[in-house]
Amino acid sequence: MLLKVENLTKQFEGLVAVSDVSFQVGAGDILAIIGPNGAGKTTVFNLISGILPPTSGKILMQDEDITCLKPYQVAQKGIARTFQTTALFDQLRVLDNLAIGYKLKTTTGFWSTIFRTRGWKEDRDKCTQKVLEVLGFIGLAEKTYSLVSTLSQEEQKRLAIGIALMSDPKIILLDEPTGGLIQEDTDSITALIRKMKKTGITVIIIEHKMRMIMDLADRIVVLNYGEKIADGPPEEVSKDAAVIKAYLGGEYIA
Ligand SMILES: Nc1ncnc2c1ncn2[C@@H]1O[C@H](COP(=O)(O)OP(=O)(O)OP(=O)(O)O)[C@@H](O)[C@H]1O
Ligand SMILES: [Mg+2]
């Protein structure tokens, strides 16, 4: 198991947003986290990525306890994420947004940057190489010099994934990567996620689009009011009575 979440709880004053949640993700798998609005899905991502400390519980990556690490330390361990609302610099070019993503990983400091040391140059070359690789991978090579504000919504979603890929993550957390997209665009993002899986990246995805998730996920965790109510392969979860009741308003998932 690459990542284990054990008895994770997050309380915000009176509200228990995540309540005693445990799950595991195998290397190279796609795990989907689903559940109604306010179920605690994004909070789980905030806990894993170190943005929020849990009230209790543990997060283990390859059996190493990463529960209390800062976001940049979690990123260095190989966990990258995207946000539910896209957080891009829209007055900068596609290229610049990706280069900023690389900064997370770089080790060159202030003085080596000022004096243009060998380390700095090597770092710059590596960054350029990585930008080109990621641009190709996300299919945005033609938009390298475009301002983000001129991109379509779907292209912006690709770019957000690209920024996360700049740090060579082992695990990528995608928070509703197709939110607000039409079906055709959803399909192209789904294809990109499959492509990531093929390269060996482990994916944890929060999504509301059931058909997409049924098709894409190896495993599904269902949250409801902060609690895990189901966990299993798609065909099992889609037949689970508690899931149908809580999430699908009694309608069977087709
Ligand atoms: N920083 C915070 N402070 C206080 N309450 C919070 C905070 N973050 C989330 N919450 C609350 O925790 C609960 C879970 O929120 P969360 O954003 O994790 O839900 P979600 O499952 O991602 O929902 P959605 O599908 O709408 O994105 C909600 O009631 C929310 O208002
Ligand atoms: Mg959310």
Number of beta strands? 10
The topology string of helices and strands comes to: EEEHEEHEHHHHEHEHEEHH
Return the average pLDDT rounded to an integer.
Answer: 91
Task: Work out the radius of gyration.
Answer: 19 Å
Taken from the alpha-carbon principal axes, the silhouette is globular
Q: Can you list the ligands bound to this structure?
A: adenosine-5'-triphosphate, magnesium ion
Q: What distance separates the N and C termini?
A: 30 Å
Strand order of the largest sheet: 6-7-8-3-9-10
Strand content of the residues, in percent?
15-25%
Highest CATH level, the class of the largest domain:
Alpha Beta
Q: Helix content range of the residues, please?
A: 25-40%
CATH architecture of the largest domain: 3-Layer(aba) Sandwich
The low-confidence runs, each spanning 5 or more residues with pLDDT under 50, are none
List the domain count as a whole number. 2
Total of DSSP H or I helical runs spanning 4+ residues: 10
Major beta-sheet overview: 6 strands, mixed
CATH superfamily of the largest domain: P-loop containing nucleotide triphosphate hydrolases
